[in-house]
Amino acid sequence: MAPHDTRRPYKRPAISDQQRRREQSLRRQEQSRRDAQLQARRLASTLLSLEQASESDIELVPESGSEPDSQPEIESGSPSKEPGFDVHQASKLKGSDARKWFARQLMLPEWMIDVPDRLPHDWYVFARPAGKRCFVVASNGTTISRQRNGSVLHHFPSALPNGARTKDVGGSGQSYSILDCIFHEGDQTYYVIDMLCWRGYSLYDCTAEFRYFWMNSKLAETGACDPPSRFHKYRFSLVSVHGCDQNGLHAAYAGAVPYVKDGLLFYNKHAHYQPGNTPLALVWKDENCSQYVIDTDNKGQIPSQQQLVLELQDDGKLTTSDDPPVVFGCLDLNFIEKSGLHSGNLLRFAIGDGGLSIVDGKIEKADLHYLGKSNRARAFADSLSKVLFQYMVRHSPLRINDIVASISSSSDEENKPCDVEMVG
Q1: pLDDT tens digits along 261-276
Q2: Residue 89 CA: distances (Å) to CA of 39, 45, 58, 86, 167
Q3: Most buried residue, 62, 249, 360, 391, by CB count within 10 Å?
């Protein structure tokens, strides 16, 4: 992709309701501001206190060591839907309930099905590091990172505020900081992609534009970006975030970075940090910026037919993890009983030759073939956006030139002269 391509590429038409849901999400966050300080305090307390419990008590299944996106896009709900759900209750969760609780604390991107409107004006873009998505919380002289299923990734001293037991540590013992990171194995570095809380100050209800400004100005002050040392075991690093004009997109897509890329992340500048899946953050990838574009099976091979994971409901319906869930089909109740299946089971299916029938951005028909139960490390079914993205990749992928076309179209609209009637 050339940064200054003067051609006017064709703008790909929308095939889903993703843009409508983006607008709804922005309206909701303006109308309903939850207690962000309480949410941050609960999360920090839970992340730290569960360190005291043994893994056998929590009964967490370790994350797979395969490619980063072998885990499902996790959504459907936020902590605010579980009133009064605090550290004491969270510490008693077991198995899938524990995995679901931790999974719901992260803001997770939808897959880009349609290119957003006003991309160069309202969005950031950056190259997503390949690795393990995790929370990092620093408090009381220690630092803990937890993966999406709640299991501890590392317990270590760091240069984050109150992140190590050193004589020059300042600040209240109640002070804590929470970062949203991706741990990159190759250089043993935590790449910070968002900041939820800093020295006890919650950033949940701040825009992404402010969070990135704060993250860039505060993180470097602490020495957290310095090389590892006795009281700073792992290095933290900021990703290069660009405005999503043609130059910014080219820099993220083709520019050199110190880590292995796993696609591009797009963040709406006005979005608050929303636990769960949100259309105000998007992930997109192709073979030039990711090793894993098409999902692989347990052996790392690309199956001949697309596979997806759906959740079985009481009435036999098969649904995604969206809120509200999207129904893909229904299993016969006799088959459910004979197979020993139960409501809440995550089931794997292949999409047959009949494919998917999509009308007005919604699933009208799906040719599903039952394969069996999903890996128990999974916390949720696939999201609709992931299923559609994987289907598009196999049949009619959204390409980098489609994104460029949208940027060009948006810029043309912005620069179009207005006709003004002169009255004299």
Answers
A1: 999 999 999 999 988 8
A2: 14, 12, 12, 6, 34
A3: 249
